[in-house]
Structure formats: C-alpha cells, structure tokens
Amino acid sequence: MIGDGKDSTNQRENTFVADGTTVGFLTDVTLCIGCKACEVACKEWNGVPDDGYVFTGQSYDNTGALSGSTWRHVQFHELDAPAGREGGGAAPPDDLGWLFYSDVCKHCERAGCLEACPTGAIVRTETGGVFVQDDVCNGCGYCVVGCPFGVIGRRDADLPGGGGAYKCTFCYDRQKGGGGPACAKACPTESIRFGPLDLLRAEADRRVDTLHARGVTGATLYDPRDTSVGGVHALSILVGDPERYGLPRAPEVPSTRLLRSWLSAGLTTAAMLAITALAFALAAR
Amino acid sequence: MRGDDVPTTPPTSGSGRPAPAPAPRAPGYFGRPVLKPPVWTWEVPLYFFVGGLAGGAAVIAGVAAVARAPKALVLPALVLAVVGAAISAGLLVLDLGRPTRFLNMLRVFKPTSPMSVGAWILSGFGGAAALALASALFHLGPVLFWLGAGPAAVLGGLLATYTGVLIGVTTVPAWAAHDRTLPVHFGMAGLGCGAAAIALAMGGRLVPPLRTILLAASLAEVVMGLWIVARRHGARDRALYHGHGAWLLHGGGTLTGPATTLLLLVHAPAVLVAIAFLVGALINRYGWVLAGKASAADPEAALEAAR
Q1: The domain containing residue A80 runs over which residues?
Q2: Structural domain for B278, as ranges
Q3: For the residues of B193-232, what is the DSSP string, one character each?
Q4: Which of the residues A209, B40, B150, B279 has the least number of beta carbons within 10 Å of its own beta carbon?
Q5: Among partner residues A93, A141, A248, which is closest to B11 by beta-carbon distance?
Q6: How many domains does one find in chain B?
Q7: How would residue B37 be classed by pLDDT, with cut points 50, 70 and 90?
Q8: What's the domain count of chain A?
Q9: What number is the average pLDDT over the span A1-11?
C-alpha cells in the first residue's frame, strides 16, 4: 500500500463505516521525520484546545505526552548511533541518530477505558474504534485509571469542553464521511497509515521483514496480541524495546482481575456480618 | 533498568571525540509517566471513609435488630447509615468533572466497571437504609423494616468493601498489586468506623458488642498492615513506602491497628478509642489515594507491572 499515492486508503474515499470494516493505524518510526503535521492536523480538525506553552527541555518535544488535549504526540529520540545501526555496522561510530514516534490512542481490541466507563459514554464504533460520546460522559475519571497506556485524560475545567474525558476519536466523523483520520491524511511520508486492520497487519509484517533485510535488526511490530488487551488497532513499527517509547511490554486490561477482587469483597462482607453476629451473641450470654 | 539495545557510549574512534561518560537512561521516554495518575481530588478519599462508615453502621444495625438489641443502638446506627449515604452521594457528585450529569451513572449497569456497580450499590444502600429508618421512626411495621434493614446490611458490607475493588482493579501499580487485600482492609476499617461512630452517637458509650467489633476490626487492621508490608512488590508498590502518601497510609494504619488495639486493652475512655480509629481510617484513605497518584506517575512502577 505504501506508494499508492492518492489511491492509498489515507487519501481515497472509502465505505469502511457502511461496510463495518475494522480499520487501524500503522505508525512507522522508520518513516517518521518528526514534522508534527499529525499533531497539528488533529488539533485543527478536532478543535482540541492548546495544552499549555511548556518548555520541557526534552529534545524538540514540548508536547510531552498524550492527554485529554493531545491526541497525537510525536516523541523525539536522540540516539548515539543511527537507528537500527546501533553497535557498529556501516555507520561511522560517532554518527548520531534520530527516531520519531507519533503516539496515539491504541484503540485496544479489549479496551480498559471502555470497560471502566460507568455511564456507557465510551463505545466501540462500526469500524472497531473506541469512541467517547462527549454528551454522555460525566467526567468521573475512572477511564483514566483503566487505560494501560496512559492515553485518555480528563480535560481541566477551564478549557473548552472541560470536565469530560477525551482521547483520539479515530476521526469517527471523518470516517463516517468516507474519509480517513486527519493525522494520516496530513502525514507527508505515510509514516501514519490508515486502512483495514488485517491489511495493515500483513503490511506491517512485510515492512518489518524488509527493515530486517536492510540491517535494521531492532525493528519490531508493537501489537500485544498475546496479552489480555488482545492486540491494538493502532499498530506501531518500532526500533528497539517498546519501553523506550513508554509502551508496556505486556499491557493488561484491569478487568482480568475483577473476579478475584470482587470475591475478596464478597467474602469480607460475609466476614463483617459474621463478626458482628458473633459480637452480639457473645454480649447476649 | 535499561532494557534497551542502544549503547549509551559509542566506542571512541580516531575522530578525536572523547568518549562521554555513560549517562544513565531515564526509564521509558525521558522518564515521563507511562500512566495517567488518578484525577480524583479530596472528595474521593473522604467518600471512601464516609461510605465505609455508613456501610459498617448498617451491618451493625441489621445484625443488632436481629439480636433484638435496644433501640438506643439500632436507631443511631440507622441514622449514621442514612446520613452517611447522603453525604457519600454528595461527595461523589462533587468529584465529577460534570456534576450535573451524575444521573448518567444510573444510565446503564455495567459489571465490568466497579464504578458502575458501586453507583448501584450506593443507590440501593441509601434507599434500603432510609426505608429501615423510616419504618423504625414512624412504626410502619416489621415487614417494611426488614425489607430495608436486611438489604441495607448486605449492601452496607459491599459499600465498605467495593471501594477496594474500585481502586484495586485499575492500572495504578501500587493499587493493582493489592487488589485482593484492599477490599478486606477497607471493609474491616469500615466496620470499625461504624462501631466507633455508633459509640460516639450513643454519647461515648462503647457497649460490649461494639467493643468486640472494634477489637476485631483493629486486630484485622494489624494483620492487614503486616500482610501488606511483608509482601512488598518492588518498584510496583514502592509509592506505599515513600512520600506524603506513605506517611498518611502508615500513620493512619498505626492508629486503626496497633494503637486502637492497645487503647482497647488498657480500657482507655471510649471516646478516645473511637476517635483514634476514625481519624486513623480517614487519613489512611487519603494515604492510599496519594500513594496511588505517585505510583501511576512512576514510569518504572508502570513498566515493571506490565512485563
């Protein structure tokens, strides 16, 4: 699909919503040039408020992290060697390198935020995206501690739409109109790909093989399918350990521990009643 | 913790550039938090305390009514349950980012969300306790009384314990590491708070059953404290041992556990014992929430918990 130009699923009109096709993102660190067009396109299309003019001192990244007001975030990694050529190879030993990673909501196959939401505000769309219905969300903040990736955030009260929980919508509105997400459309290198998830998974495998053949041995596909998250709809091709990008190696959905925690609560309730009954029985003697 | 294939020092070559000292790599991305800390403010730990107290009082009220305990005990217990439920609801509304949409909590029932189940528990508890209190005050007959007091006792236990599930079943490492301990810890503290508050409401009289309950609760708190401290989880729950949250958590636990036990054994004044337990339980809840915020902001804790 890379190189399809205006026929690519990033650009052409599609019928994914009508067809119920599960779609995804494929974000490739080896193609990203760190231009932040995705951040800007996302902010503009979705009317996301600014997240403060903060100087982080962390490379050229003054965005910092994904939040309720940042739905695409480009990480800047300054390397001691060109990406993928660490530990020698053809590059001169004092050559430096860059990696840029455009992080986004993972739209998990099994989403912690969606399971945690008590109002039903967070739903799954026809194309498999995880979507927050802003008119239902009451701002309880429980999704924030349900996300294994630290993506969703509650927006401060003084901002437009303040008090509610926000994250990437997968540009559901654009998808309904037959388009692709603003970030993918704006990406000048097709480092961000949008399209049917199964096609992107196959393409990601091919891309990783190509990168390995070219000597970028650290290239991996980040798609934790063997965890309780069950894989993500926002795939990433990374170079090196996912933890370098702040991505957990084995993210888990909290609800896998629901049963044992509720069992503990139930048994404790029984114990509270038993202790009280015993106390009154002893006093009656 | 490098977990990384990037050499921090490239070998020096003939280029003349001196080899820089190896810089320790911050965990994750620039050492920034991997998870989002809970957004909850002062209302939530106070709710954990008040809700636990109300639930514990309802457990005692229900069992006391079965045991035909005097009305001087049952009535204040029911009042505490009803007033506690009302204050709890108020605190939960205040905590929301959009308080006017509180009723959206009751839009669906979602077993996967302890927040949803908890909202239903609190609603059912408030209704049942109010029914029991109304029938006791206005002599509406035993059927209505038991229709209220019975469910209120069971839901009261769940109200005191579910808050442990609520914070345990999250991605916050220090909470998640104790997802089975927290319901026991919070539940026993709630029962003790109920007994202590009833004693104060009865004019500072720690009648024998309440004394037994408070002793059992404080002993349970001793065991819970030892259990948590003995099973440390490395980076995952280190927020329980460093920072302001740790001080509140252990300070509160010391008051509810060993201090209350000791005060009971030396037959200290009932008011002193009751206040020691209540204050301890209150600051312990603040400790857990503060420690949770620190834990979620700790990238090493988050990454280690997900390996």
Answers
A1: 5-252
A2: 43-305
A3: HHHHHHHHHTTS---HHHHHHHHHHHHHHHHHHHHHHHS-
A4: A209
A5: A93
A6: 1
A7: very high
A8: 2
A9: 79
